[in-house]
Amino acid sequence: MSRFQHFRIFWLVFFLVFSIKILLKSILSTDLFTYFSYLFLNTKLLFFLNFRKKNILRTNKVLNFFFKMQSKRPLSPHLSIHKYVLTAVFSIFHRFTGIALSLGAVLLALWTYLIAMGEDYFIIFQTLSSHLIFKIFLFLWTLAIFYHLFNGIRYLFWSYGKLMQLGVVYKSGYAVLFLSALTTILVWVSV
What angle do CA 14, 17, 22 make, to 5 degrees? Predict the structure, then answer.
């Protein structure tokens, strides 16, 4: 059997599965449809793919994942049913700023390298740093430094069990935002 015939048979089986799926969906309820279509696909489609013995387990996992994702029910716990809590948002941004600081440190090392290589490379640095996008990146990196610093200090207090009352947690979160913005502006005004 040639590759073209395998391809035609695969698409024929795929079309049959698709048409039976639509027929079952119109007749049965969602749970019964999922059960019967899963049984049908496991027996017919996996039998068809039996010549690829190495991929049977992977195909079964893909089919299981496909049917889990195809059901219209939300995953549990789903993000859409939860309210954003300020401490969770600050924790997520603390991690993001940590990643941004790591990437910024690599760029800072490249900047130092360009300066140390001599006048020709320093001209490259000057042309790069004269762009507005570079200054915006540098401003956001400075903001990330101070946010990560002040939020890290807040986490250190929490590690010792201090400032854990709900009202104080929210006030310290707003203080972190205020101090981060204030110190970033002071640094950029002084430069």
Answer: 125
